[in-house]
Amino acid sequence: MTPSSPIQLSLPVHLPDDETFNSYHPAGNQQLIESLRLAAAGQGERITYLWGAGKSGRTHLLHATCALASDAGLKTFYLPLGIHASMSPAILEGLEQLDLICLDDIDQISRHPVWEEALFDLYNRVHENRNSRIVVSASAPAKQTDFLLPDLVSRLSWGIHYQLHPLSDSAKLAALQNRAKVRGLELPEDVGRFLLTRLARDLRTLFEVLDRLDKASMVAQRKLTIPFVKKILHL
């Protein structure tokens, strides 16, 4: 793809409507969120690397960043590299033409030389194109990843780096209640605490369960109570 080629992509990837900054609880990550908001407005740092444990909310934040940028009229692209096996590295060609590129789970392509080279080249092109910004996520700092290409590790050290700090249980409860509110659902505190004590405490699992409860509540025309939750989740 030449630099002047239009970007035409057909991918099994979509941005969830409910994964926005409004539905994200920022506890301990306010500086990161402010930086991502700036990137979504075409401002601030041009290269952002964020890392954190699996299911810590990295994907949510990349979705939110792309969604906000799209709402502002910017040309954006989101790609979860966990599905790289079903794609060609050529998909990264020409992305520097866009205003914002969000690449999720970049460490999933480590030890895949052709993919590493493609990401290295993209970083160089973004660096040369002063109008483009890139946000990437990984499970570890760049120097602690398993990339084989030393020059790629060097490029990944460019820009600004943030660690996504895990939320406390009280912050997770607030995040659950905030997400429920965005969906028009009331999550009583006792029900939220019950979920935290009976389920895996990563946000992805908690949010998936909340989505399930939301649908069940709508079908049954019931408010969320502990007995109702026990019945739906077979607890």
How would you sum up this structure, described in words?
The protein is an alpha/beta fold and 235 residues long. The protein folds into 2 domains: 30-163, P-loop containing nucleotide triphosphate hydrolases (Rossmann fold), CATH 3.40.50.300; 169-233, Helicase, Ruva Protein, domain 3. Helix content is 42%, strand content 11%. It contains 8 helices and 5 strands, in the order αβαββαβαβαααα. It has helices spanning 30-40, 58-71, 113-128, 150-156, 169-182, 189-198, 203-220, 226-233; strands at residues 47-51, 76-80, 100-104, 133-138, 160-163. Strands 2-3-4-1-5 form a 5-stranded parallel β-sheet, sandwiched between helices. α3 links the parallel β3 (100-104) and β4. α1 runs parallel beside α2 and α3 (113-128) packs across α4 (150-156). The longest helix has 18 residues, at 203-220. The relative contact order is 0.15. Mean pLDDT is 90; it is low at 1-12.
**What structural category characterises the helix and strand content?**
alpha/beta
If you average the pLDDT, what whole number results?
A: 90
CATH topology description of the largest domain: Rossmann fold
Tell me the series of helices and strands, N- to C-terminal: HEHEEHEHEHHHH
Biggest sheet: strand arrangement: 2-3-4-1-5
CATH class of the largest domain: Alpha Beta
For the biggest sheet, the summary is: 5 strands, parallel
- Number of H- or I-type helical stretches: 8
What low-confidence regions span 5 or more consecutive residues with pLDDT below 50? 1-12
Shape: elongated
Which range best describes the helical content: under 10%, 10-25%, 25-40%, 40-55%, 55-70% or over 70%? 40-55%
Whole-number total of structural domains: 2
Radius of gyration: 19 Å
Distance between the termini: 53 Å
What is the second-level CATH architecture of the largest domain? 3-Layer(aba) Sandwich
Strand content: 5-15%
Number of E-state strands: 5
The CATH superfamily of the largest domain turns out to be P-loop containing nucleotide triphosphate hydrolases
